[in-house]
Every structure is written in C-alpha cells, then in structure tokens.
Amino acid sequence: MKTHYEQLGLTPQASPRAIEQSFVRLAKKYDPKEPLNQANTEALAMYQAVHDAYRTLNDPVARSKYDLTLRTQSLSERVKAARAAQAQSK
User: Which residue has better confidence, 16 or 76?
Assistant: First the structure.
C-alpha cells in the first residue's frame, strides 16, 4: 500500500506548497466529472486516495501524527528483519 506521500508523488520532506500543488494536479487528472474518467473505477479510487492523502498532509497536526506512524512502522519492520536474519544465522 502506498503512503500518502507516495500517493501524491512526494517525499516526506515535501513543503506544504508542494503538497498542495501535487494535490491540485492529481485531483484534476483523476476528477470523476471528467468524461474520460466517468466510467473508470480506477480513476475514482485514485481521486479518493489523493483526497485522503491531502486531507492528512495539509493539516500540520495530522501530518505530524502520520509521520510518527510511518517512522514507527519503519522501525518495527527493521526490527523484524533483524530478528529474522539473526534466526537464520543460528
């Protein structure tokens, strides 16, 4: 599953302005009111994902919480990988 940053084509270091610009560009691209997207269920899913990502990343408090969640998940994944490598070396 993509992170909100990946959904918007950005990195966690993205500025608020870059987040907004990417959101506007992608929201226009996947807008379900556009004739090419009206029958495209994938475009609707992308439109919703882009909106969800923007809602979180546009709010400084929500973004901080989200970033903390990403860091915690990353640390957890590294610990699991280290334990698995250690178990294989025994």
Answer: 16
